[in-house]
Design goal:
Elements: E1 11-16, E2 27-28, E3 42-50, E4 59-60, E5 68-76, E6 84-86, E7 109-111, E8 116-129, E9 134-145, E10 150-157
């Protein structure tokens, strides 16, 4: 923001100060990559501005150093992507074959960009007659990712 040169257009490269599994810091790159290991951390990034043409892709740390200037920025990495909850299919069961444990009707699965912490299940019996084993049971599943974000999905059994 505000980088310029009086005589020519400017070009940008960047790198992380510290290397990790996301990206090496041994070269300047067209973009800095962040990964799940970075979530919740503050990552120090070097932005290099050149006053000469710079090839696309990675360049050495000493590439056209005499035509470059650096600045540092702190990047706070946050996970803003909720997990996706996938409920098992709805089931219709005869009264004689009803399984009160509900396990026979499947469990939810979840996917996330980083990691799933837990999947919980609750059952609502408000529209179900437990004496006659008739009605509808609604199961609500909640998928929680390692960053604390969640999503829900439901299954109806009747």
């Amino acid at each position: 923001d505000g980088s310029y040169d009086n005589c020519s257009p400017v070009h940008f490269k960047a790198r992380r100060m510290a290397t990790n599994s996301c990206q090496s810091n041994e070269q300047f790159h067209d973009q800095v990559k962040f990964c799940c290991d970075d979530i919740g951390d503050t990552i120090l990034v070097v932005l290099r501005v050149y006053d000469v043409d710079v090839q696309s892709g990675d360049v050495a740390l000493d590439y056209s150093e005499e035509h470059a200037n650096d600045c540092m920025v702190r990047v706070i990495v946050e996970d803003k992507v909720k997990p996706t909850c996938n409920a098992p299919a709805n089931k219709t069961v005869s009264c004689e074959n009803f399984d009160p444990s509900l396990w026979a009707y499947g469990t939810a699965t979840a996917t996330d960009n980083c990691c799933i912490d837990t999947i919980t299940a609750t059952a609502n019996y408000s529209q179900f007659d437990t004496l006659c084993n008739r009605g509808t049971i609604t199961r609500t599943f909640r998928a929680l990712d390692c960053g604390g974000l969640s999503s829900t999905c439901t299954q109806r059994n009747g």
